[in-house]
Amino acid sequence: MLTLWVCGLIELYFADETGLTMQPYVPYGWQKKGQRLGLPARIATKRINLLGLLRLDNQLTIYHSEKALTGAFVVDCLADFVAKAHAKPVVIVLDNSPIHRCQAVYGQQTSWEEKDVYLFFLPAYSPI
């Protein structure tokens, strides 16, 4: 696929999610020997979840939500992305996250392929 992108035959994107919060989270700290430190309990804060599609030339498309990420969110984001004009066939590389491999995503895959947008799932992780 990389060769196809380098030759200008496809648009190649890598997609993944992340989450951001303004509440810092440091699960460890330093203290003097014999001194006990207390940390306040974490309180609920708004979290922004992001799905990004990054091309190797650093073109980035980002979708966000304050709700938990689900397969339906992935479908909505990818449907919007597919609806945009693309001059060449598009390949989107995804990992094997459950929200990528859910029925909602599989249900749209054929219609996206009709529009020349293809999903490529990375192989399962292997420690060998």
TrEMBL record:
InterPro entries: RNaseH_sf, Tc1-like_DDE_dom
Coiled-coil zones: none
GO molecular function, one term: nucleic acid binding
Protein name: Tc1-like transposase DDE domain-containing protein
Residue ranges occupied by any Tc1-like transposase DDE domain in the UniProt entry: 12-127
Organism: Spirosoma telluris
Taxonomy, superkingdom: Bacteria
